[in-house]
Amino acid sequence: MNLVAFQNCYPDDLSHCYGCGKNNIDGHQLKSYWHTHKGNISELAAEQTIAHFVPDQCHIAIPGFVYGGLLASLIDCHGTGSAAAMAYRQESRTMGTGHAMRFVTAALDISYLAPTPMGIELELIGTFTEVKENKIVIEITVSANNGVCAKGTVVAVRMPDSMVQSH
Amino acid sequence: MNLVAFQNCYPDDLSHCYGCGKNNIDGHQLKSYWHTHKGNISELAAEQTIAHFVPDQCHIAIPGFVYGGLLASLIDCHGTGSAAAMAYRQESRTMGTGHAMRFVTAALDISYLAPTPMGIELELIGTFTEVKENKIVIEITVSANNGVCAKGTVVAVRMPDSMVQSH
């Protein structure tokens, strides 16, 4: 069980992302984790990831509802974070140890299913649908008050080692 | 030829979107226009839309490159703005006159083709692929220095009149 957010395990120089970088003081600083259930971790639950986020007052589409670009950003960063965590897990390594692995988004598909209300903590749940060494696909739901407002698919591809090391 | 940005024609109470609302002082305030070519507007050019945006210094993925969530947000808002403009055009009305028409995003699909460099004005070009009364589909490219960095498809659906009028 990993209580450290995936994004907090990124190398410092790859932690500037506006959506999730711990070193971007202006950004959203999304934090993603393995999804556990009351201390009882089933194999299925361990395959899922979770993140929570409360939109700022300015993040509106029309008054009362969250704008879609924020949801896209959260899905994107939860996806690449989940992909990185899964890659470490595939190698049975603790995230953040040894040579760094980082994923970037190749494709992002989002369906907006219902208006997303403001003033409520959003919950993102990620489920892996494909796991290869250099490509990981994650389906992500965004819920408010247990109602799914948006769902997305992130195709995450591994950042070349040369790019990871150069930063 | 319309020199007023599409988003500046939205009703005041529907102009709060973080991505493009003129009344959201914290937001991106994206401005979209019909795409014209040196005063010589061909039928094809008139079917396209254009927007420009310079990312803020904080909008990074990794140092030197724009984060994907911003591109998603810009594509989204350029898409719904373009859809609204096209809907007025289909009714041969000047945008912003008569009863208001506004579109929201049902689906957003984005392919990230190349890292998007910071410090450069991005150009979005929208091309309509489907135009119906209640559903308009737009394909959008995002370019930097004339190189396409991302392309997306926005499926925009018309906001119910009741929702438009209530705001």
Your description of this structure?
The structure is a homodimer of 167-residue chains. Chain A contains three helices and six strands. In chain A, strands 1-2-4-5-6-3 form a six-stranded antiparallel sheet. The longest helix of chain A is centred in the middle third of the chain and has 23 residues. The first copy, chain A, has a single domain, classed as Thiol Ester Dehydrase, Chain A, CATH 3.10.129. Chain A is 20% helix and 31% strand. Chain A is an alpha+beta fold. Chains A and B meet through helix 2 and strand 3 of A and helix 2 and strand 3 of B.
Q: What brief labels describe this structure?
A:
homodimer, 167 residues, Thiol Ester Dehydrase, Chain A, 6-stranded antiparallel beta sheet, globular
Beta-strand content estimate of chain A:
25-35%
Q: Can you tell me the number of structural domains of chain A?
A: 1
Largest sheet of chain A: 6 strands, antiparallel
Please provide the ordered H/E string of secondary-structure elements of chain A. Answer: EHEHEEEEH
Major interchain interface with per-chain residue totals: A-B, 35 and 35 residues
First-last Cα distance of chain A: 28 Å
Quaternary state, please? homodimer
**Broad CATH class of chain A:** Alpha Beta
- Fraction of helical residues of chain A: 10-25%
Tally of contiguous helical segments of chain A: 3
Radius of gyration of chain A: 15 Å
Low-confidence stretches of chain A: none
Q: Enter the CATH topology name of chain A.
A: Thiol Ester Dehydrase, Chain A
Q: What shape does the CA trace of chain A take?
A: globular
- Please tell me the overall pLDDT of chain A: 91
Question: So, the CATH homologous superfamily of chain A?
Answer: Hotdog Thioesterase
Enumerate the strands of the largest sheet of chain A in spatial order, edge to edge or round the barrel.
1-2-4-5-6-3
Q: Structural class, from secondary structure content of chain A?
A: alpha+beta
Number of strands of chain A: 6
